[in-house]
Predict the structure.
Amino acid sequence: MDSSALTISHDYLDIDSIIAVNTKVTTKMESTVCKLGFIDPACDSENIVKNTKLELPIWLTRELYNDGLATFELPKGYNESFRQVLEADANVVDLHRLGPNYYRLGQFLAALNLPESTAIANCLVDTFYQRLRRIMDFSSNSPTSLTPEIGQFVGKLDNEEVKLFEESRKAMEKFKAWEDRRIEKILSNELVTKLRKRKRAAMELD
Amino acid sequence: MNFIDRCVSLLKELSSSKKDFLPVYNNEIVSECITTMKRLFEENQKEALDTSTDSASSQDGFIVVKIRHSILLFIKRCLIAYHHERLNRLKKLRWEFGSELPTEVSCNLTPKEIEWFAKYCSNLSDYMGRLNEGRGFDLTLNRTAPKRIFIQVRCLQDHGDHELEDGTTVCLQKDNLYYLPFSQCEKLIHQGIIEQVSD
Amino acid sequence: MFIQDLGKEFYELLYGQRILVLVNYDVDATCAAKLLSSLFRSDNILFTIVPILDAEDLFVTYTAHRASVKYILLINIGASLDIVELLEPEDEQVFFIADSHRPVDVYNAYRGNQVRLLMKNDDAGEIPSYEDLFRDSDDEDDDEGSQSIAGMTLEQLEKRQERRTWNEKRLKILSEYHEFNYYGESVAWTFFNLARKLGKDSNELLWLAIVGIYDLRLTGRIDRNTFKGYLGQLKSHVKRLGDLKSNVNLFREATPIDDIFNAPAGRRSCISVTHKKDLQLLLYRHWNLHDSLKHTMHVSCQFRVWHLRGYKRLLEFLAELGIPLRQSKQKFACMDLELRKHIQEWVSDLTEKYGLSKIIDDTFEASHGFKYKFVASDVVYGVKALLESPNKELSPKEKFMKALDSLSWTKTDVLIEGIELAKLQHSAILKAVHDIIEMRAIESAGPFLHTIIPEGAPDAKLFSYPGCLIALARFALEAYVVSVRRKRVLDLPLIVVTPDVNTPGCSLAVGIPPVSQDPTKNLFGTAFIEAGKMINCQIEVTLYDMCVVRFPSEERSNLFEALIIQLR
């Protein structure tokens, strides 16, 4: 994760990371800073006064935090009460709603050297471990067309988990195709078929 | 701070579009981001060159410059990621569609991207031409190990006359059944003109 | 030119070459195409299969492909058309024609190397000799019109007279030759024999040949004796190829054929063909007994199910068989096991009493694995329904490809779909016959009977296909003969006219021979053409069968008048 704004991390170009890191958190300024008024859209003055609360993206908050200028609350899903819920049973939680990039943001927070960082890190690992079983189950044993049940399940997964699910599914499909001797059959490229379907759908609408 | 959200919206647009196709290049937001970056840079410059302040406010000034700079870097990161993702998808399109892109796809590209694509295609064909001891080798074919020399295919669109490697022509009409050598069918199958029929 | 040895004079020429195969839209041709495609694939002969709907289609397809092929094979097309005149091919191109339509056009027979007919000499019929048809024209009409009669020498006059008598004789021979249309050997069978000669025959190919032969039988193109001839040969092949399979036994001693559960896995996935005597009820395995009895032509006509009394008799028959009515209306596979096992026995006991002599007959059954068992006639009806399906969303070529798919054992769901369509087809036929009899829509026009399907009839779209139309005509004539107890109707042929849904403004007409005469010899092919010439109207003969023609709807009454004059 980005440990400072000035170095380039391994996920510099990753879109999901960027979106995750842009999550807004409630920041409380610990000291007054002149001429920093522009970061607060609600503020008219040029300065930021101590004890103002604003919603800032977390990457910006980190800058302020590292200089001791602000503190912030952990975003929803990472605080103590939530961690307890996850510890109890992670399978019922809708991680997609909590933030489709739960794990990424969690990793970011863990790298920040907050007092709760270790706890967050442990919680992440534990949550993933608990949910993994279900993901494996659903992806390896489902029919080729997505039933509503599976659709619902996927809807509650975090983006990382969705990627894992898709990979697992693809692998299972390939195996089934090998079993049915379907791999001998050459298919037109996926995108070409998709494009044709789109065209046909567009023509039908006309 | 709204401009930051606008910037991220670029990326959200890209991530929500289907992973394979390119949406229209969002010139508006990109140029907005660039102007914002310029503005921030100028303000920082002004601030940095402004030596007529006392030590307390210069401390603050330092912070302000730092914050502005980090915003600048963030916007830069967004823009680079946006363009990088688009180019990656474009690269993949070469392997799916061949060097001729259908109009539905190419209408969403900027002229620079089209130029880049042409260069990539020529790089790829140059490389492929040098394989196999100079005789050339098409990497886009035979992605699965072929099982037969000849295959039975059915034509999906009227394609007219198609020349085979031995010089003879085959007239490809819709819904005819053909039995042809595998090597010459594969490209047509990839393009969706014919489909393989199993028995 | 006729080719007797298909192996040497046809197949061997094709090694390393490409061939264009043009196929007609009937079941026999479809089976032959499928058979040939597996033969060609085993020898890496490149081919292209294109289905042909009518003469125009033939011309267009040939023009598109003419530059790229040397050998062209026509299946069930072309024997009765003058191919060279129609298509004007290049000199090097060779046409092979495997067609069961007869009589063979005389130009095809004498065209030499360019047109090669894949049929045995005795199967091709009595073709008039060369001298009777063609003569050198060097001493022809150069002095025909230039001199008056008085100025000619005796010799010239005699020559002229001789020429005239020769011409008259020629015309007479040709008109006799073309008077009746009939059918020769099944093309699927011809190609199966080729496969056998090459040593490449198998159960799958045998099954295709069986289906082709049954198509000829069920559409009335061959009579019982010819069919019996085939039957003997088919039975011996079934035995021979069946035994071969039981010898391929990798793991244990020879097991009896029924012991399929212990067979090595390979055997379970190949098809096995058996011969047996079975109920000849339409699609009864895929339908229920009651409907099947109602829709089978000879049962339906025997009982006259369109009358209430007749229907009651049918129900009595079922009751006497010992089958409860409720069960007979359930799907056959869901009936009681006891009933299903004994039904054939019980029916055979009652055939005399109810006059159902044709109800039990020889048939062949193919099974694949544990699930699918099909009888030859089921497959024929299924494939026919797919070829003639009224589905507007599929082009005719797509329907042909579907029919071709249905013959493949990995795609049996397509065949099941076809069988469902066949049920619809036959229900429509029964209903139409019902209406015709009830409304007394069959009228006599003197030398023939005729009936007209009204323009807006709901099932008219099903009858716009020649195969279905012929089936309707046969059923209608049979039903009429049975309802009207006059001796005279036994000698009258029937013409059925229906609006052609696919070609607006045109109608299709089919003529079938009277019940008392040979059903395989049909004179309407030439009769329609001659009548058309008489009224100067464009009559288009369908490629499927010469007795089905297409003509502009408004000429109908003129056509009938011309026919009356013709047939008197």
About this structure: Residues 440-567 of chain C form one domain. Residues 246-268 of chain C have pLDDT under 50 and may be disordered.
